[in-house]
């Protein structure tokens, strides 16, 4: 009897375990804006840049430049964080890889 065979599915999990320690870059986008170089050069302390999102709209959460969720800003122990309110489905995340 061959004891090296694992129940179906267990081998697949083991094959993916090496991926769990790969570091990823997470970023949160508050909004975007397009400006002219002239406007960029005129910026100084106190300059306000208007963004394309309204106050209270969900923030976009990106992992390696791919949208994976939306959420709201929170304050935890005097540090900013984000509470996820909408997570892109795994199928959509895979679809967006290409």
What is the global morphology?
Answer: elongated
- The SSE order reads HEHEEEH
Number of strands: 4
Low-confidence stretches: none
Mean pLDDT: 85
Q: How many structural domains can be distinguished in the coordinates?
A: 1
CATH homologous superfamily classification: SpoA-like
| Assembly level | single chain
The helical percent reads 10-25%
Widest sheet: strand ordering:
1-2-3-4
Give me the CATH architecture, please.
Answer: Roll
Describe this structure in words.
The protein is α+β, with helices and mostly antiparallel strands and 98 residues long. The protein has helices spanning 10-16, 37-42, 90-95, and strands at residues 26-29, 59-63, 66-76, 79-87. The protein is built from 3 helices and 4 strands. A hairpin with a 2-residue loop joins strand 3 (66-76) and strand 4 (79-87). Keywords: Cell membrane, Cell projection, Chemotaxis, Cilium, Flagellar rotation, Flagellum, Membrane. Pfam families: FliMN_C. Residues 19-88 form the Flagellar motor switch protein FliN-like C-terminal domain. Its main location: membrane.
